[in-house]
Specification:
With 162 residues, the chain is mainly alpha-helical. 54% of the residues lie in helices and 6% in strands. It has nine helices and three strands. Strand 2 and strand 3 form a beta hairpin.
């Protein structure tokens, strides 16, 4: 590649770059940390961590005590969140299906539960690559930001249109 061009050609096709493998690992890791989450909140995870600029900001320790702080200090970062939410919804659903089939999670009417008896362990992914490591660090920060907010507040703050 010449000049400042990206050396990773997969980034040009986000459907290859952000696939079921990376999203299933990310969501499995998230669930291993939180144990229980509402389905509406679960669907918000991938638009945060599979968006490169948002992930970079989540991994930046100078911000991110709350979603409001993130929006106030970096308003453009989440300005297209509704679009990302809709784009990543099929990937989120596919990943839920995979995690459920692998018995890593259990889905009921309103919540998703982590199966602590599953063989999903963070230590199994330590050598999988730098991208998933960055995503896991971002997920740790995201847990702090969104788990204590109620679903309605999250969806309103992020301007999600259903």
């Amino acid at each position: 590649m010449i000049g400042n061009q990206d050396i990773n050609p997969l980034k040009n096709n986000l459907f290859i770059y952000n696939n079921e493998a990376i999203s299933t690992i990310a969501l499995g890791y998230f669930m291993s940390r939180v144990k229980v989450i509402s389905i509406p909140k679960f669907m918000l995870i991938l638009p945060f961590v599979l968006h490169e600029q948002t992930l970079k900001q989540l991994n930046n320790n100078s911000i991110n005590r709350s979603l409001e702080e993130l929006i106030t200090k970096k308003p453009l970062l989440l300005s297209n969140f509704n679009s990302r939410f809709k784009d990543f919804l099929p990937l989120s659903i596919n990943s839920v299906t995979i995690l459920n089939e692998l018995q890593i999670i259990k889905v009921d009417r309103e919540y998703i539960y982590f199966n602590s008896d599953s063989n999903f362990k963070k230590s199994d992914f330590k050598d999988i690559g730098t991208r998933i490591q960055k995503i896991m660090r971002g997920l740790d920060k995201l847990i702090e930001i969104i788990t204590n907010m109620d679903n309605n507040s999250l969806y309103l703050t992020l301007k999600i249109e259903l």
